[in-house]
Amino acid sequence: MSAPSETVPPTPSSSSAVPPVTPNKPPHVLIGGAGLAGLFLGILLERAGIPYEIFERSAEPRQLGVANCPDLIGYDRVIFSRPELHDMLFKKIPKEKLHMSNKMVTLDQDQDGVTMTFDDNTTAHGDILVGTDEAHSTVRQHLHKTLKKDGLLPNTIIQFGLSSTADEYAASSGWTNQENKGMVDEFRDFKTPYAPPSGGAGAVNAMQDPVLLANHLYDINPTNLKNTKTVLSDYKNERFDAIKDQYPQSHMSAKLIYGHTLWERVLRYVVFNWLPESLQRKQLVKDTAYRPQATF
Predict the structure, then answer these.
(1) b/e string for 47-86 if b means 16 or more Cβ within 10 A?
(2) pTM of the shown model
(3) What is the set of domains in the chain, with CATH numbers?
(4) How far is the C-alpha of 47 from the C-alpha of 285, rounded, in Å?
């Protein structure tokens, strides 16, 4: 795959108190990770006319019955494999905007934007970096450390895997057996009865998040630090409550699917065998009511 189109040597942070303004020019968006969320966001930005690049550390692309109910949700629900969906999205991204085998090891941000540094010492600079790099996320680890240093990280937030060094991360290829074992050993004794989200929420969020984020990125004009902060804050305010509401539902789904106590087994039997169809349809309507739409 081609080299990043905006690879530049690392530059020192700007000392200016006022960030530069780029009038009538959309932000250049860097996307870290070519999973479902990263690819879907790229497709939306392509349609919105927002410049972007996707950087994936792997050399190759990574890789639901449901009832037909168009009368309730407007379209049929169908079954297909997740790798097929990923492959379909992958083919929609122009090759020059998709950079494989680019393993980000560090990032630096200032008033002029954000710079990603890869394991081969090349860099890419943009106005915004969106982390969609899933497990062992370098973006997430950077944010975790920065917020913790500034005293802004809630005590309830725990980021696993922070003991890994940048070199270990760069050498990693993803979900290997060794990495899986290390992650399991790290949170084996973490005190929680279940581990939501459950019931496919991850894949759903990987498509809903980009829709709302693309809507807000489209509204940045002109491109500067103040406007970027405003639209990202608006995105958070619009998205947070919907995400928060998923947790009790995911917790209940986990009980129904994985619960092994007597009460949970009885509950599972009742729900899957005796629950009236009217209640099932009512829950389906509730589950599918939140459907964000692209506004551009």
Answers:
(1) ebebbbbbbbbbeebbeeeeeeeeeeeeeeeeeeeeeebb
(2) 0.76
(3) 29-154+202-246 (3.50.50.60)
(4) 30
Region at 30 (left for phi over 0; alpha for psi -120 to 50; beta for the rest): beta
Q: What is the DSSP letter of 20?
A: -
Query: Residue 142's CB: how many other CB atoms inside 10 A?
Result: 18
Strand pairing report for 113-118 and 123-126: antiparallel
pLDDT in tens, 98-153: 999 998 888 888 888 999 999 999 999 999 999 998 656 778 888 888 888 888 87
Tokens 């290997």 label which residue?
176
Closest listed residue to residue 108, CA positions, set 93, 83, 126, 132 = 126
Nearest CA to 171 out of 103, 244, 241 is that of: 103
Q: Tell me, what DSSP letter sits at residue 22?
A: B
